[in-house]
Structures are given as C-alpha cells and as structure tokens.
Specification:
Structural class: mainly alpha
Shape: globular
Number of helices: 7
Strand content: under 5%
Number of strands: 2
Strand order of the largest sheet: 1-2
Largest sheet: 2 strands, antiparallel
Oligomer: single chain
Order of helices and strands: HEHHHHHHE
Radius of gyration: 27 Å
C-alpha cells in the first residue's frame, strides 16, 4: 500500500510537471521575417555582385588566353557596373548612382591594365596599376561610407581589399596556368562577395525602413493547448 501511494504521488507530480511544461511550450511564439521588398533587394543585390565576379573572371580568362570575343566579355562586364549604379538610384538618386557606376568602371578598367601588364611581365606597370586599383577601392569605400551611416569606410575598405586580393589571385593563377589555385580563389571570391552583397542590403534596409514595409512581419505558431 505504501508503495502504491508513493507511485500515485509520483505520477501526479509527473502529470503536473508535464502540464506545466506543455503550457510553457504552447505559448504564442513570434518570429521576425523579412518583408517581400527586403527579400527582393537582397536577391537582386546578390545577383548583381555575383555577375560582377563571374564576368570579371570571364574577362581575365579571355584576356590572358587571347580568346576571341574578349571585347564582348569586357562590354558585358562594364554593363554590370552600370547595373550596380542603377540599383542604388532609388535610394540615393541619379547623381549618386552615376558616380558609383563611374568608380566601378574605373575599377574594371584598372584591373584590365593590371592583367595586361602582368601577362606581359611588366612588373613596374603592374605595380603602378595595382596601386591605382587599391586607391580606387578606397574611393568607393569612402563614397559609400558617406552615403549610408550603417556602412563604415573601414569595413567597406576591408571588404573591397579582400575582393581585390582574391581577384588578383585568380589573375595570377590564370596567367601561370594553375587551375587548382584559380578555382580555390574563385570560390573564395564568390563566398566573400555574397557576404558583401548582404552587408550592403542590410545597410540600405536599416537606413530606409519605410521603403521595406513591415520588415519584422510576424508569424505565430498555432496554439496547441487550451
């Protein structure tokens, strides 16, 4: 009898405890979700910067190997810089978008000079072009840092410098015919550029929350107990 009484007390304790945990678990849960407009911007920004690295690599390979149609690849790459500039115009205006396009086109044209000099073995010219390339990166970082307080010049410069370093690694690998190194650098550049694209999106969303509607739309779980 004493054992049965103890078992009954234990079962009652378990039922009460389980009920308590069930009630706690069944409380309404809210999860923040991005708005449709934010998701659209994020995907568009990723696509633009993926195009940037894809067409940059395509140009490097074409130029290094003197492939036919290199000029067409270059034209498509320059169009990407226009596309990126156009993408910020809804937020920062026509003048700012055109300025970014100009800076990014310089970024590409200097890179072309750098690839050409490196391919020709002109170390002095290559060093000069590389300095201009990094100076241009600093100008882009400064321009964007002034446009949005959520982007600091220092963080932008770090991201851009990493992109330049990885792009140079791709070019060196292409020139030296080191396919393994080329693939490794391209994969790293891709991963890095997605991170940079997301950082740019995050900054825009924070600066212009009204343009993105309810950026913390609520999704609630179903109530599972009375």
């Amino acid at each position: 009898m004493k054992k049965l009484a103890l078992m009954a007390v234990a079962m009652a304790f378990v039922l009460v405890s389980t009920g308590g945990w069930s009630q706690a678990a069944c409380k309404k849960v809210t999860v923040s979700a991005p708005s449709k407009s934010e998701l659209t911007l994020r995907m568009d920004m990723r696509k633009l910067w993926e195009d940037h690295i894809a067409w940059t690599k395509a140009y490097i390979v074409s130029a290094v190997n003197d492939l036919p149609g290199t000029d067409k690849v270059a034209a498509r790459l320059l169009k990407n810089q226009q596309d990126i500039g156009d993408a910020i115009k809804p937020f920062y205006g026509e003048e700012a978008g055109d300025k970014l396009t100009s800076l990014l086109k310089d970024h590409i044209l200097i890179a072309a000079d750098l690839v050409g000099a490196a391919k020709a073995g002109d170390n002095a010219k290559a060093a000069e072009a590389e300095k201009k390339w990094y100076d241009n990166g600093d100008q882009i970082a400064e321009f964007l840092g002034k446009a949005n307080p959520n982007w600091t010049k220092e963080s932008l410069k770090e991201m851009l410098d990493t992109h330049l370093s990885l792009t140079k690694a791709i070019a060196v690998a292409a020139i030296t015919k080191d396919l393994d190194a080329e693939i490794k650098a391209a994969d790293s550049n891709h991963e890095h550029m997605l991170m940079m694209a997301d950082a740019l999106t995050d900054g825009i969303v924070k600066q212009f929350p009204k343009k993105f509607g309810e950026s913390c739309a609520k999704m609630s779980s179903k109530k599972c107990c009375s």
